[in-house]
Amino acid sequence: MNTKVAIIASNGGLFDAYKVFNIATASAATDAEVAIFFTFEGLNLIHKEAHHQLPLPAGAEHLAEGFQKANIPTIPQLVEMAQEMGVKIIACQMTMDVMNLKKEDFIEGIEVGGAVTFLDFAKDANVSLTF
Amino acid sequence: MPEITADMTLDCKGLACPMPIVKTKKAIDQLDAGQVIEVQATDQGSIADIQGWAKNTGHHYLGTVEECEVLKHYIRKANPNEVNEEKKYPLIISSDELQKKLSENEKVTVIDVRETAEFAFNRIAGAVSIPLGELEHRISKLNPDDEIVVVCRTGNRSDMACQLLAGKGFKHVKNLESGMSGWNGSTINYDSQN
């Protein structure tokens, strides 16, 4: 039985994106089954345009250079790797309705679902994380 | 110092977490069970990460060598059936019995049939390294009348080696029960010779 990792992403900054996708890709590479539920501002992390230019937290803009120097993958690259390794991406329907977003506004290969879609996966998860 | 050979070398130099892990996972999928990968990384966090990764995926972390600020991690791809394979060669020797023979200086040749990378990091003093895949064509260098104990990690590869040797007319061959995983005598490891 594989380890199951359930993640909720509810914030939309660059730091949040790295926390979510680093854990997700590392888990998937370690043969875990991973699902991420994107809700509220977390939807930015999988939004077609927004996930290419996620903001740094106020006052941390100077770290942009550090991100480049550390030779870390970009968020779109991490998302692609995550999907390649079978990470399940679920966008929250309710938040999409509130923000007037359509499935087409997001990257390819996502699922749209409600809270129960995530809970169904998370109920027997070994690791549950919220970012 | 024994030479360490790997079936594949993966360059993760300059990459930060989680990339060494992600790339190692992809690379090991290309290998056959039993093969060894060398992962070169400069991320110090990879020392702990690679070990945690191996523990969770079931692959066998052999060790790490640091050379000129490059970390070389060695991992052997596990065979899903490795632990369950049936033993067939009947003559076995326990860890205690072999230790007794060695401590009493009995004339016994210990042949270690693991990969060179495994041998380099942890082995019985005086053991000779002949990876299982090379045993057949190095067999002429061995004496069929000698008393021989064959060792691997868990006793499976050495079981095959024992059968091969017995089939070639070796008369006094024994398999070390449970291999290095059951060995409670002293060992030589990579650090102690530097």
UniProtKB/TrEMBL annotation, chain A:
Top-rank taxon of the source lineage equals Bacteria
Any one Pfam family match given in the protein's UniProt record, by short name: DrsE_2
Tell me which positions the record assigns to the signal sequence: none
Name the InterPro entries on file.
DsrE2-like, DsrEFH-like
Q: What is this protein called?
A: Sulfur reduction protein DsrE
Q: Which organism is it from?
A: Paenibacillus vini
Automatic annotation (TrEMBL), chain B:
Q: Which residues form the Rhodanese domain?
A: 104-189
The family database entries (SUPFAM superfamilies) matched by this protein are listed as: Rhodanese/Cell cycle control phosphatase, SirA-like
Regions crossing the membrane = none
Q: Which Pfam families match?
A: Rhodanese, TusA
InterPro entries per UniProt: GlpE_sulfurtransferase (IPR050229), Rhodanese-like_dom (IPR001763), Rhodanese-like_dom_sf (IPR036873), TusA-like (IPR001455), TusA-like_sf (IPR036868)
UniProt cross-references to CDD domains, sorted A to Z: RHOD, SirA_YedF_YeeD
Protein known as: Rhodanese domain-containing protein
Q: Which organism is it from?
A: Paenibacillus vini
